[in-house]
Known about the structure:
alpha/beta; Aldehyde Dehydrogenase, Chain A, domain 1; Aldehyde Dehydrogenase, Chain A, domain 2; 2 domains; six-stranded mixed beta sheet; 15 helices
Amino acid sequence: MDAIALDSRLSKPTATFLSHHRKLLVDGEWVAAASGKTFSVYNPATGTVLAQVAEADKEDVDRAVRAARRAFDEGPWRKMTGSERGRLMWKLADLVEQHLEEFAEIESVDNGKPLAVARVADVPLTVDMFRYMGGWATKVTGSTIPWSVPNEFFSYTVREPVGVVGQIIPWNFPLLIAAWKLAPALAAGCTIVLKVAEQTPLSALRLGELIQEAGFPNGVVNILAGYGETAGAALAAHDDVDKVAFTGSTEVGKLIVKAAAGNLKKVSLELGGKSPTIVFGDADIEAAIPGAASAIFFNHGQCCCAGSRLYAHKRVFEQVVEGVSAEARKMKVGPGLDPSTDMGPLVSEEQFQRVTSYIESGIKEGAKVVTGGKKASGNGGYFVEPTVLTDTKPSMKVVREEIFGPVVCAEPFDDADLERIAKRANDTIYGLAASIWTKDISKAHKLANLLRSGTVWINCHNVFDASLPFGGYKQSGWGREMGSEALANYTEIKAVTTKL
Length: 500
């Protein structure tokens, strides 16, 4: 077993949490994996071991699903009122807020993101999500149905929890996406088995401790750390799971769909993207340049909605490319705990190899590197320079495939026809997000109507709120996260009719 190496800048609570062997939360108890196996979690800024975590596989999934099934069918959870569930969720939100600094530190060393970003984005948005959905717990309602023909019947609908939910989350926003999944399921009255990414399991395991402290009944939330091909596959295929929710790559999403076919469990998917950032000649360039840079370089480009395809009108193309490149050059790439860091490392060696291989592929196919394109120095960590490519073509891999790193492909356009601009932006298997930069708000809304994207931002990018539904068209997924729309993922509609 590799020795744990902790950064001396960590607070005592965080260091204490990381120094203890982390177990699995099953039926209200912290337990070792049935196999006894563990795995190492690495700090992406240094490549050193951060923590040791129990490794769940099929037997642990079986135990967790049985616990969730008992909690749903026999336990007190389903009998609780929406008000009681909502109060528990608000209590959990308060506890997360009280431990904000600890969660921010855990996210920073586990994922690599700057501590300042985790402080102002990941953790506060997690708190907001539990509070927002806690309010919805009392508002999951049905309707009375007027008949369309003369009748002597009275009909109404009710929304009921779907049951036991398997949730599989990624490594790019570990705590926040755990909240995106857990909060609406809890509000609806479901019980949950949450499988966290093996690269970044720590914040969800700490959240599990607060779920216990808040007083959630045993078995309502079970948390497993393990690998996708073992624990994740077993959860997606489990016959006693009523619904599976997945966030991750489109390739794995397709495997989830196949695995879920056995018992035809319900499926929601939040998958990949290749989002366009469209800058018109009349845009406020002083806002568009940092906006386009943030669109791709935020969270090291490890965002499913990253603005990885930059289209700028030829009148401003060179100015935009040079401006975004200048933003990239002045970014400090370093460890997340360093207060001067603007962009941290990629999450793992595997991701580092993936991103650098895409850059090499683009260069071989004729792309020009305006800035970046290489490994950034940094104590053995997985650092890649923020990279701007030009002279790219629609047929290139770097343009067509999701890189999931700080790499943007910039291309000019010379067109006033919004239909043709939209066709170019829509020329992708994905449809997750897009941003439009222009002072002409009428033009912006007309183009927004033509874009096949689940989210369209106008004169902004990467703007989120618990009330805003998020998800994609085409191969970017099924269903929506956040907002009232997310409750549809976790409820069934029942029609009741009485003869009068």
